[in-house]
Amino acid sequence: MRLLLALAFSLGSAATAAAGDYASEISAYRRANGLSVVRADGRLVAVALKQAQAMAASGTITHSVGGQFSSRVAPLRKSRAAENIGAGFLAFSEMLKEWKASRGHRENLLMPGARRVGVASVANPKSPYRKFWAMVITD
């Protein structure tokens, strides 16, 4: 069972290695589309992780389970932020492929002026989705 949701919102160690790998994959996609690269940002990883944990704990895929997106990213003080979430894919490459195929997710991945990204996943073997993903991208 696989499910994806996308949200864009405009505002006025191993994990670190994985974050860098995720940023590299997203950057390659952005470069192929004539856009700038993004760098992994620990603060964005923390926001994404909190959302992935909330979804895994509840077994649901929704942007609001970890709190409203606008509230979750407000402390970052960014003028633009977007979030992709999804579940049911064990590897990031699979999740990214699905996000690329979805108009809303693709728009978030290709947000003009984006500079930073955070990606996190949390497993829940009891859920039919098995793994929950969240990505936050900002200017």
Automatic annotation (TrEMBL):
- Record-annotated SCP domain positions: 25-134
User: What stretches pass through the bilayer?
Assistant: none
Which InterPro entries does this entry report, sorted A to Z?
A: CAP_dom, CAP_sf
A Pfam family name for this chain? CAP
Leader peptide range in chain numbering:
1-19
Q: Which CDD domains match?
A: CAP_bacterial (cd05379)
Q: Which UniProt keywords apply?
A: Signal
Instruction: Give the matching SUPFAM superfamilies.
Output: PR-1-like (SSF55797)
Protein name (Swiss-Prot/TrEMBL): CAP domain-containing protein
Q: Which organism is it from?
A: Bradyrhizobium sediminis
